[in-house]
Known about the structure:
There is one protein chain. This protein is mainly beta. It has one domain. The strands form 2 sheets. It has a 4-stranded antiparallel beta sheet with strand order 2-1-5-6, with no helix packed on it. Strand 1 and strand 2 form a beta hairpin.
Amino acid sequence: MLAVVKIAGMQYKVKAGDSLYVPHISGKTGDSVEFSDVLFTQDGDKLSVGSNINVTVKAEIINDLVKGDKVIAFKMKRRKGFRKKHGHRTQYTQIKVTAIA
């Protein structure tokens, strides 16, 4: 079974057993989470789209805090002596989809 689920404003295509990185979710390693905002499901030849989907995606948190790559925003105006450097590392949570039911 295949599903497209919306997690923190982003859409992910998932199957049972998939492992993926999503924006940070509160919880600890080993906790189970459910996502009820499912946009699309496919079960064999049967497709379901829209508001008539009554499916939830169940997942387990594998790693509660994973930091992404460092992103640096550097601003500079030439001949003015203006330099500004900001940076951040986005925080993610690694989850493993256990079931789509």
